[in-house]
Amino acid sequence: MLLILAAPSRAQSSHARVELIAEQNTVVPGRPLWVGLLFQLDQGWHIYWQNPGDSGEPPKVQWQLPPGFAAGPILWPQPIRLGSGAIIDYGYEGQVLLMVPLNRTATEHGSSLPNIAADVKYIVCREMCIPGKTHLTLATPADGNWEQWRALFERTRQQLPKPMPPGWKVSAESNKTSFVLTVRDASPVRSSSFFPLEPSQIDNSSPQLFASNRAGFQLTLKKSDQLVKPISTLRGLLMVGAGRSIEVDAPVVSR
Amino acid sequence: MTKRFLIPTLSFLAVLISLSPAWAARVGEAAPEFTATDSNGNVHKLSDYKGKFVVLEWSNRGCPYTQKHYNSGNMQELQRQWTARGVIWLTVISSAPGKQGYTTGPEENAYVKQVNAAPSAVLLDPTGALGHFYDAKTTPHIFIISPQGTLIYNGAIDDTPSTDVADVGKAKNYVSAALQEATSGKAVTVPTSRPYGCSVKYAD
Q: Partner of B159 at 20 to 30 A CA spacing, among A58, A68, A139, B52?
């Protein structure tokens, strides 16, 4: 019997396992097919957010899709702050699903899952870093248990950063050393921290000074040494209270 | 402000700068003075090199990003090319004892020989003092200082953050571009970029 080695749907490398999974096993007309890279990391090891912070790089994907499908961008869950002291990064530990919508550009396709593949490059780090590179095809859930994957996609979806609540007013004032991010008309919060979307804008390792009053709250964010030109918008995620993640686009005013 | 007040003010500012390393490495400002020891036990001060361009290259031989530039021969080529033109190239190792990249003088000298590197010297910074002074974040992380002692570049070695050797030839090398411009008396068009690499392995 000839043993044909198919491209793995699941890759193992040091300290990280990554699979390409789908939310369901059918394609529904008019709706995207949600797929995702499911990373499972050994304890203490991490991969990086789209802005990795001071070091590291986010995973990168190149899709191989049949005609009639186009991949949208990765939806990045709220990352955690990694590291301490002089070097602060943003990323994920444990398990993380990076979801991507596959949109249909043509209508003639049956309901069965398309043959898709992805070339994924990533770096997984703890005390040291190990690059990973793998070619993945769509996995099939163990015992045909699609419900587990569907639930994982749904849970991840709930945890994605949310748009700013209506009524919030966000702005950022730029001075010589810092951005002062102000949120007005927000209900009271006890704490907040800012995760910049773009690198080289704020200094990731500087403490963020939080202040609040009845009108809202403020974060003072020290500027990065690599920021040389003024920026017009400060974009990022605000972690508010116990775990709300809010996307903010703050117009920047100079003083 | 009269001259009488100017000198004490400058000294005060100089003290402030040396006590506040976090904002000491901004392009366009004076590069922080330092004293460091190399792999042969020789002491180097930045002021020793006034009148010359100086490149500081943070390195950790175990980091895949550093390995990309050394395995491809890219870093050694840059070192040769620019030291031949009178640039002082100082590789800096700020890994703390017990951390990846930590090395001793003789071991580092053997490594330099083995990979055919050509820095002017390798500064051993296991306490991380020099690294923190410049706020070196990654390996590699490059700083370029002008003959007048001004920081003219702070950032990545090139524009392609990956661990793939195949990317080296295709990437725009920021170090060569900055040195090419500065040595011809032109302004550096890309004075900063996001440094990419593994984190510098400072002590906990």
A: B52
- For chain A, what are the domain ranges? 10-159, 169-254
Q: Within an 8 Å CB–CB cutoff, is residue A58 touching chain B?
A: no
Asked whether the beta carbons of B138 and B195 are under 8 A apart, the reply is yes
Q: Is the pLDDT of residue B100 over 70?
A: yes
Residue of A nearest to B61 (CA): A128
pLDDT tens figures, A181-216: 999 988 888 899 999 999 999 999 999 999 998 889
User: CB B26 to CB A225 under 8 A?
Assistant: yes
User: Which CATH number do you get for residue B70?
Assistant: 3.40.30.10
* B102 is a domain residue: yes
- Residue numbers of the domain that contains B57: 35-199
Distance from CA of B63 to the nearest CA of A (A): 7
**A81 CB-contact burial (10 Å; exposed 0-12 / middle 13-18 / buried 19+):** middle
Tell me the pLDDT tens digit for each residue of B101-121.
999 999 999 999 999 999 999
In this model, does residue A163 exceed pLDDT 80?
yes
Spatial separation of the C-alpha atoms in residues B88 and B136, rounded to whole Å: 18
Residue B83 domain-assigned (yes or no): yes
Q: Which of A87, A225, A228 sits opposite B199 (nearest CB)?
A: A87
B193 and chain A: CB distance < 8 Å anywhere?
Answer: yes
Q: Do B201 and A127 touch (CB under 8 A)?
A: yes
Q: Please state the φ and ψ torsions of residue A137, each to the nearest 5 degrees.
A: -115, 170
Is B150 an 8 Å CB contact of chain A? Answer: no
Interface residue A56 vs chain B (CB under 8 A): yes
CB contact under 8 A, B194 and A199: yes
How many domains are contained in chain B?
Answer: 1
Look at residues A140, A135, A161 and name the one whose alpha carbon lies nearest to residue A240.
A161
Say if B204 falls within a structural domain: no
Burial (0-12, 13-18, 19+ Cβ within 10 Å), A135: middle
Question: CA B117, CA B203: separation in Å to the nearest integer?
Answer: 26
pTM of the model: 0.90
Q: Residue B38: which of B97, B105, B112, B98 has the closest Cα? A: B105
In a domain, residue B6? The reply is no
Which of A54, A57, A206 is facing B199, going by the closest CB pair? Answer: A54
Residue B77, number of CB atoms within 10 A of its CB:
16
From A109, A100, A127, A84, select the one nearest A32 (Cα to Cα): A100
CATH of domain A10-159: 2.60.40.1250
d(C-alpha A89, C-alpha A40), whole Å: 19
Those of residues 4-33 in A touching chain B at CB distance below 8 A are none
